[in-house]
Design a protein that fits this description.
single chain, mainly alpha, extended
């Protein structure tokens, strides 16, 4: 009847942690984080259009160390979501579901996103005190 206990969904305490679970959680989190990051970009564009005084205010906030960590996180979010999205395209085609291979590709995406994000910041000259490319 209506008062019978309903079955519960598996809980996190029941499941053993694995990297593919982390990948799934990160994919959802980075999807949301990308919306937040795009908002920062739109605010930057507005600041650019409002003149040097307003841009100077935005730049003061954007160059703060805490904001720099947030912006690096946004870079990671974009790179991770892109790479994991490509991984999911292969999964959608039915490839890569064997547990060991799925774990391997989840690790590859995670590491590649970290390396790729660091490379973007290094090549773009966004790391304070680090200059690559021999510019003046």
């Amino acid at each position: 009847g209506l008062n019978e206990p309903r079955p519960l969904s598996p809980h996190l305490q029941v499941w053993r942690w694995h990297v593919t679970m982390l990948g799934s959680i990160l994919h959802r989190a980075t999807g949301f984080a990308n919306y937040v990051g795009v908002t920062l970009i739109v605010l930057w564009l507005f600041a650019c259009g409002m003149g040097p005084g307003r841009y100077a205010q935005y730049e003061m906030v954007a160059t703060h160390p805490i904001t720099q960590v947030i912006l690096f996180g946004f870079t990671f979010s974009i790179v991770y979501h892109l790479l994991n999205g490509l991984r999911h395209l292969f999964l959608d085609m039915g490839a890569g579901y064997k547990p060991n291979f799925a774990s391997l590709t989840a690790w590859i995406v995670l590491v590649a996103a970290l390396i790729g994000s660091a490379a973007i910041w290094l090549l773009a000259g966004l790391v304070p005190g680090v200059s690559i490319g021999g510019g003046a």
